[in-house]
Task: structure prediction
Amino acid sequence: MTDWKNPPRLFIPGPVQVNDDVLQQLARPTLGHRGKEYSQLQAQTVDMLKKILFTDQNVFLSTSSASGIWEASIRNCVGFEETVLCTCCGAFSDKWADVARSCGRNVDELKVDWGKPVLTEMIDERLATGKYTAVTLVYNETSTGLTNPLYEVSEMMKEKYPDILVFVDAVSAMVGLPLHFDELGWDVVFASVQKAFAIPPGLAVAAVSNRALEKSKNVPGRGYYFDFQSFAKSAEKNQTPTTPVIPHIMALNYQCEKLVKEGMEKVWQRHEKMGEFVRSWAKEKFALFCEEKYASNTLTTAQNTRGINVADVIKAIQEKHNTIFGNGYGKLKEETFRIAHMGDITLDDLKELLGWIDEEIA
Amino acid sequence: MTDWKNPPRLFIPGPVQVNDDVLQQLARPTLGHRGKEYSQLQAQTVDMLKKILFTDQNVFLSTSSASGIWEASIRNCVGFEETVLCTCCGAFSDKWADVARSCGRNVDELKVDWGKPVLTEMIDERLATGKYTAVTLVYNETSTGLTNPLYEVSEMMKEKYPDILVFVDAVSAMVGLPLHFDELGWDVVFASVQKAFAIPPGLAVAAVSNRALEKSKNVPGRGYYFDFQSFAKSAEKNQTPTTPVIPHIMALNYQCEKLVKEGMEKVWQRHEKMGEFVRSWAKEKFALFCEEKYASNTLTTAQNTRGINVADVIKAIQEKHNTIFGNGYGKLKEETFRIAHMGDITLDDLKELLGWIDEEIA
Result:
């Protein structure tokens, strides 16, 4: 019997499981969003996010899913006469190109097969045409469990195309994978909090470079809800332009405190260890869907080499243990399956889950 | 000492005070937004909202503040060649006109002084020009505490201008004031949940007519995040197009259960009684800012006829009782002050607050 009040424990690649102490942060008494209590909350939270993202530039809190920032980055920073190059390697990077088109912008795509990375030389070749104002990159493609080599891409771009704006979807990467925003020379990066921040969905975090903000001043048709200029103006008072999702910002404050205390190097190492553990199991029992070099440390996509019925295994584990993991995404359903290992998920949690899968496939 | 973890009790006109049992709904275990548990939650919640809004048409849940739906209504339902008439009678109705312009649409304004209603004959006169495709109305102007006579306006529009689309901001009206969506012939109505639903901010509820949805199919530049077509397509599966703010939807489900059980007539009467009580105090001690006929049942704006220092009184009550009410909005600061009486606020709560104000002004 489906009962939303008694949902399964989540190993799907987002929303991920949220610990009880984090959930309780959402239940704190609410605040007036124009009062000093709220400003204190936002100031504290943004300060910590700047440490987590290694930036001295702008950090905005958007009451939306991260996909709102797909639209925001395009509307704010790409003029109607300009063209953006969208790199596509899976369902979510593909979608971003659609979103850019829905905003009436000119879009070219650089497409690779799902499960393959977008490589530095491919991007270089396209940018060399001189046609592009901006490029969209996905750090970690949640549909395939692939991490693109963005540190290498960013080095190349800083050297050869320093004037091209760089927008990065870090939805399932932020917190789990290294991210030095200022050093990488990125212009917009964003994530939802229901991935490695381990908070329920409803809030997106975005870092925006000073030059992107400057450029947005003169881009028409930015609209209202996602206008970076309004975000920047309100940020001066430690506020948001529209009423924010305060419970989630309280939970984010709580999670940021823990992350800053742990130290980001250690947080990334913790995710790396979880990634290694699940990959090692997946290689032994199945195969990795992506080349290991590009396999993500926040989720693993296994190739269903044994021809198991993935949906049946998920169903069985849900019935026995009230726990679910992810089937393959879209066209990769049954051909692959996905296990999240990010946020507050632990190695012990993963051992338990993989043990249950082992029992089902034995 | 400002401490966001120990905030004041709220009588500002939103966010309003949220009861502990409602806050606890936000702390429920989270769900996968593509799983059957989430669909069950959304289906239940939307069914109850349809009863609350008296509609058989479309109800959407938007992870945004209600101001996102200002933008959505315009982007989805007003073409670039068309003109929308924005009726303006306070800070928020004024802002909606700005938002429509920021979406690149043609806007004419029908402006009255703050604190005055937009009357049926004024709207009739403008619509008679034949220039307009749509009109924006604000049911309850939160900045002035004024309720526009929308039942009368709607009767006139249904009779004389049945083809003109009607968009209604019901941010501080929905739940607190009568709202029969289908019967009124409205096309879009929306509110945030931090007003009379008495939930923390982060979610907006919108009803959208079938004809508005049909029209939006052919309006270009709808963008992505607020595209009604995507909302409608996802609603067929009891889902949202992007990851929704699940904790708030759980709390909304809880609040809707209570509202449906109480019955909307009784809910509106309860608000009316609170309105009468606060107005009677305000008339005795100060004066009403709006003509009584148009004074709202969800918040009262008092004219500061005694020349008190409003900010000082609010500060004193915060220090003594950790409770705040609202100063006047924008240019009405100090000249007026505002007291919310909606959602889960009770007559006893209001007696307590008004007693404290009496002590300060004695």
Observations:
- The first strand of chain B starts at residue 9 and ends at 11.
- The CA atoms of residues 149 and 292 of chain B lie 12 Å apart.
- The two ends of chain B are 27 Å apart (CA to CA).
